[in-house]
Amino acid sequence: MDSSVAGESGDGGNKKSALSEKIPEISADNVASPNNASNDGCNSVDFIVVYNKNKYDITFNSNKTVKELKTYLQGLIGVPEDLQKVMFKGLAKDDQTLKDLDVKSGAKVMVVGSKRDQVLAVSSSGPQDVATEEKSVTKEPFCKQKMHLRVLEKGIPDDVMVGIRNTKDPLPSHPLSGMLNKTGGKVRLTFKLELDQLWIGTKDRTEKISMNSIKTIVSEPIEGHEEYHIMGFQLGSSEASRYWVYWVPAQYVDSIKSAILGTWML
């Protein structure tokens, strides 16, 4: 009788032991967080993403790159990652991590960009437009053309920003100033990336232009002053719609094109 009871007790112990082997031990390390794709414990940072006047609370691993952040945001804001521009103290590069950018808790990160169908609708060219672009390739350099010479002959503006050739710098946080337009008047460029707008300011007015409406950008260095460029922003379907800006510092040319057109269109 005693041995029977002992046997039953022993079987129960074996069953309990076998059951415990099937149930994995639960610890804080293997419990998925609500934001598992972006939260990595002590490496995570809480910040705000601002897109199209909407704000999103984000928790993301600070060791992850801007490209990985774009991939995560694609499903959140509906903009393909290759059309996103992430702004934090200037235009962020894809290979930079949030730690590299010094994104801290509570920081605001701006994202601009449009859905692919919207961009393609604006940028699509008809056969006539393509022929015009091909024809323009054969033309003489901008700085030799009469319409541009009239402005260049005035000389370098006294208050022009320092130009640096063979250098690529991110856009500064302040407007680009000290340049001239085709009438020889002073002009400044302000990049309102959070609004996806380019502000072209003169003494008399400031024109606010949607970046999506800028079809293309052309630029050439000024002969004898290669640290500066002539730059044309095409606002319509033909070359006649280009807004010309002179004495653009060379180090900002690529960043201007990238900020407005996106790297996928360069």
Class by SSE composition: alpha+beta
Mean pLDDT: 79
Helix run count? 7
Strand content: 25-35%
GO molecular function, one term: cadherin binding
Protein name: Ubiquitin-like domain-containing protein
Domain Ubiquitin-like: 47-118
Region (Disordered): 1-35
Supply the key terms:
266 residues, 7-stranded antiparallel sheet, disordered N terminus, alpha+beta, 27% helix, elongated, 4-stranded mixed sheet
Describe it for me?
- Residues 47-118 form the Ubiquitin-like domain.
- The chain is an alpha+beta fold.
- The protein is built from seven helices and eleven strands.
- It has helices at residues 2-22, 66-77, 98-101, 116-123, 127-137, 146-152, 253-261; strands spanning 44-51, 54-61, 85-87, 108-112, 176-181, 186-192, 197-201, 206-210, 216-222, 225-234, 242-249.
- The protein has a seven-stranded antiparallel sheet with strand order 8-7-6-5-11-10-9, with helices on one face.
